């Protein structure tokens, strides 16, 4: 099972039309005014002082299922992309959950738990802004590589495995007790890791689908969440003739998240504890009859 893979979901023309529509409608999408606007509560600005500023529209995925007013405010060209990404994410999740290391309960029930917390997002990065190294919290994420380059994944084995014992930890950059120092030191430690590789696709219509933290949890670390980032210097790779594309980088993604993540963290922790107990029992079996005890213990 590949932890991430490219998926030929769209034609290059479809991707180009979607990004062009997002660029042309950016003011209407990201600069909404008035609480009565359907997108009012869904447009967010991240970064601020010292961070990487970027805007994003985040809609619970059920808006797509029911064609709400907020979802219908997205350009039709972008909605086509959202629908295809959703199908790709579900297909990846269905395949990944059949992995033999996945908890039986997750294999049977997790797909039905991917409800109201799953999201679709439309992000806008100004030139000079990127995204810190992180692992998405959900089961998996499907995304267009972006209207410009800059997306990279990390393939190093140096990262510590996710610790399923940290119940309900649904937000950190990297999990595991041995990674606390790296997280405390900030993204620069993760940026300095070896084996950062650009996500290269055959054309702009290909998407990337990658494992998230929840999949790592329910597989006992066998299917590790993919560490990825967006480089701040993405604009340097844009064709100089396309000034508009060099000003803003757009991206569209769908992330499948469980409704009750703590349930799966707890289930993974219980399975881990049970495995440890079984291992100890196998290594040091308890005697079944007093006559088998050491003479010292009879004294």
TrEMBL record:
Matching InterPro entries: IPNS-like_sf, Oxoglu/Fe-dep_dioxygenase_dom
Recorded hits in Gene3D superfamilies, A to Z, give: B-lactam Antibiotic, Isopenicillin N Synthase, Chain (2.60.120.330)
Q: Which residues form the Fe2OG dioxygenase domain?
A: 116-258
Q: Which UniProt keywords apply?
A: Iron, Metal-binding, Oxidoreductase
Query: What SUPFAM superfamilies is this protein classified in?
Result: Clavaminate synthase-like
Q: Looking at the keywords, is Iron present?
A: yes
Name the family. Belongs to the iron/ascorbate-dependent oxidoreductase family.
- UniProt-recorded name of the protein: 2OG-Fe(II) oxygenase superfamily
What is the native source organism of this protein? Novymonas esmeraldas
Lineage of the native species?
A: Eukaryota, Discoba, Euglenozoa, Kinetoplastea, Metakinetoplastina
């Amino acid at each position: 099972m590949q932890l991430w893979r490219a998926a030929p979901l769209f034609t290059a023309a479809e991707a180009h039309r979607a990004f062009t529509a997002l660029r042309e409608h950016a003011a209407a999408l990201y600069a909404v005014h008035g609480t009565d606007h359907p997108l009012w509560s869904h447009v967010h600005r991240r970064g601020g002082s010292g961070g990487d500023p970027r805007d994003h529209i985040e809609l619970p995925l059920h808006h797509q299922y029911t064609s709400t007013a907020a979802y219908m405010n997205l350009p039709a060209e972008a909605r086509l992309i959202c629908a295809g990404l959703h199908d790709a994410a579900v297909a990846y999740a269905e395949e990944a959950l059949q992995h033999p290391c996945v908890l039986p309960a997750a294999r049977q029930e997790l797909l039905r738990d991917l409800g109201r917390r799953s999201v679709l997002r439309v992000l806008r990065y100004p030139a000079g802004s990127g995204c810190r190294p992180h692992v998405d919290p959900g089961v998996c994420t499907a995304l267009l590589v972006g209207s410009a380059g800059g997306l990279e994944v990390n393939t190093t084995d140096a990262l510590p495995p996710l610790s399923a014992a940290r119940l309900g930890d649904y937000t950190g950059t990297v999990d595991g007790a041995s990674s606390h120092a790296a997280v405390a030191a900030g993204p620069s430690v993760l940026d300095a890791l070896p084996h950062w590789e650009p996500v290269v696709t055959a054309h702009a219509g290909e998407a990337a689908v990658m494992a998230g933290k929840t999949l790592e949890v329910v597989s006992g670390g066998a299917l590790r969440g993919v560490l990825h980032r967006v480089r701040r210097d993405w604009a340097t790779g844009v064709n100089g003739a396309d000034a508009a594309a060099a000003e803003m980088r757009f991206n569209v993604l769908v992330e499948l998240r469980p409704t009750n993540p703590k349930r799966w963290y707890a289930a993974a922790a219980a399975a881990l504890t049970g495995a440890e107990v079984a291992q100890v029992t196998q290594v040091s079996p308890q005697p079944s009859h007093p006559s088998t005890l050491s003479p010292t213990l009879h004294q």
